[in-house]
Amino acid sequence: MIREPRNADAPVDTTYGLLLEKIRYEGAYPTRERAEESLRAVLGALGRQVTGDERVALAAALPEEAARVFTAEVPDVRQLPGAAFVRELAERTEGTPVTARWDAGVVLSRLAALVGDDLVADVVRHLPPGYALLFGRAELLAQAA
After folding, report:
1. What is the pLDDT of residue 138?
2. Cβ contact 8:114 at 8 Å
3. Does this model's pTM top 0.85?
4. Which of 36, 53, 70, 145 could form a cystine bridge with 47, CB 3.0-4.6 A?
């Protein structure tokens, strides 16, 4: 089921700008540019993992600029578990697994707050293990068990 975007009436720049500011604040990034680097890296990596209706619904729920970054990546043939997702993110950003885990957690938890619990649950349900915590949703682990 494809959901209507929560932010359809919001100005694109404002919504994307607010998302960046929240990521900057919650991630304790020194600049807006650093927050945007994290957002773009994590969204690109996520775009390589999410497929099907969940991909369409997530793209529709994101601010337009974020949706373009997310959908610019072609999904990989094989989805990575959460830990491998973080390792690949670290390699692509030339960071460490610790900083990649931080970036992923900050960005994905902000996206979860933006798009809502139902869509996050759908996305996590269609990904290999290890993503619920990255989205800041430990309760999804209990539901999956």
Report:
1. 79
2. no
3. yes
4. 70
